[in-house]
Amino acid sequence: MFRALHLRRSLHHHQNTTTPHSLPLKILTTTTPPQNPKLTRPFCSTPPPLPPSSSSESELRKYLGYAALLLGCGIATYYSFPFPENAKHKKAHLFRYAPLPDDLHTVSNWSGTHEVQTRVFLQPESLPELEAIVRDANQKKQKIRPVGSGLSPNGIGLTRLGMVNLALMDKVLEVDEERKRVRVQAGIRVQQLVDGIKDYGLTLQNFASIREQQIGGIVQVGAHGTGARLPPIDEQVISMKLVTPAKGTIELSKEKDPELFYLARCGLGGLGVVAEVTLQCVDRQELLEHTFVSNMKEIKKNHKKLLSENKHVKYLYIPYTDTVVVVTCNPFSKWKGPPKFKPKYSQDEAIQPLRDYYQESLKKYRGEGNVSKSPDKGEADISELSFTELRDKLLALDPLNKDLVVKVNQAEAEFWRKSEGYRVGWSDEILGFDCGGQQWVSETCFPAGTLSKPSMKDLEYIEELMQLINKELIPAPAPIEQRWTARSKSPMSPASSKSEDDIFSWVPKDKEELATLRARLRKRFPVDAYNKARSELDPHRILSNNMLEKLFPQSDTI
């Protein structure tokens, strides 16, 4: 194989030359029979028989020669075409000696679970530039999948065929203080937006755990915060400007084409590129956060009260323990002040059990002699690591080892018991949550009754999930997070409902077979209406990717 490669490369190099160097090549590739038959051995001739011992030695020498030849060819090929610096990449394989092109972009999602490489990664700086990009791509039938900050753990915004990103379109365009509305470019990040409007005394109604999302992305994927009285974030959208391949730039609101507006608010990037968004804001406020540890028995008893009496509430379940961490957030009253509470433990005392277990685990997995008190070069001191960083490092040692995961979960439960208490801060600071590092997350959302009459199916779901984990001995790390929202009027939102009183629970879900998932999506969402809008606005599917086509195929035979 390597010899043939060498000959082909030599052919390419010498085919237009007449120098003497071409003569050996012609001799090597000629098909003319040799003139002196004595100098050659016919391929079909049979050599005379050899003694048994001589035959075995000959066979051994032959195969040793083959091995040496292969090894020599491999070494020669490797050193003849060494890796340049830009080819030393985790996607480069042995003997793939071609460097990565300068125009090749590596794009990964925030949690590092999905990554693609593409030559087409466009970042317009203005609306006219974005319009020209979409128009040109539509004419050429070139994919330009809209991608934001890549916060979705499933990589829904990625495709190697081409992407468009609005990170350079990140301005606050207009603030209406009286009506508490703000118009922004869709590439602005949540934290940028919050910082840009806080001087006006405004903020967003709710937040997801992370504030690095671009506004266009967080709206399109149906992201949510927590609070049974608060809807998902797409409900904050008053109007939007959408750049479509077939119809150009269109402005949508509940007054202008309401049916398409509600469909496009949570359109998964498949109906057009969201260029501008007008959001309904609220007065900036401080929140009082209360974190305490409970158990499933107490949760069942107090569930309705917790949902109805707290503006924001979430539960964190710790598998293989009976620990349920409850976090509530409510408007802070300066007249009342924070509750009188003195923590029993300092932050260092709360995190120490995890540090101890990390040191113990390092000795086991790296060996006694390889664990020193001082960290290696480039490795952070254990005392400087946060709780989530320590947890991630521990799990990375042996992520499928159930016994290790159980001990890590027990240490986490102990951490939360020692971290009970209160804190006060602005809503954008309090509602965030340190999710840790790499995550494979598949979330589901389902109806959970109403505030006045919860169905309790949300807790039944968790109980069944915990039973499955215990029965199958699944190495499930903590936490399993459960949140609630009110309904959304966007038909493609997982929390879509026509009833104003409905509440929805959001929790992780296991992977489904594609056929089952398609059937469930078709039952839950207006798939035909969505696909019809896609056909009208993006007939060449330049805004789509493999995931979108798998979930919402144009010809669905389910």
UniProtKB/TrEMBL annotation:
Compositionally skewed regions (Low complexity) per UniProt: 23-33
Pathway(s) it belongs to: Cofactor biosynthesis; L-ascorbate biosynthesis
Basic residues biased stretches: 1-15
A cellular component term, taken from the record's GO annotations: membrane
Example GO molecular function: galactonolactone dehydrogenase activity
Keyword Membrane assigned: no
Residues passing through the membrane, by range: none
Listed cofactors: FAD
SUPFAM superfamilies: FAD-binding/transporter-associated domain-like
Keywords: Oxidoreductase
Pfam families: ALO (PF04030), FAD_binding_4 (PF01565)
Superkingdom of origin: Eukaryota
Region (Disordered): 1-57
Limits of the FAD-binding PCMH-type domain: 113-284
Gene3D superfamilies xrefs: 3.30.465.10, Uridine Diphospho-n-acetylenolpyruvylglucosamine Reductase, domain 2
NCBIfam families: GLDHase (TIGR01676)
Protein name: FAD-binding PCMH-type domain-containing protein
Protein source organism: Rhododendron griersonianum
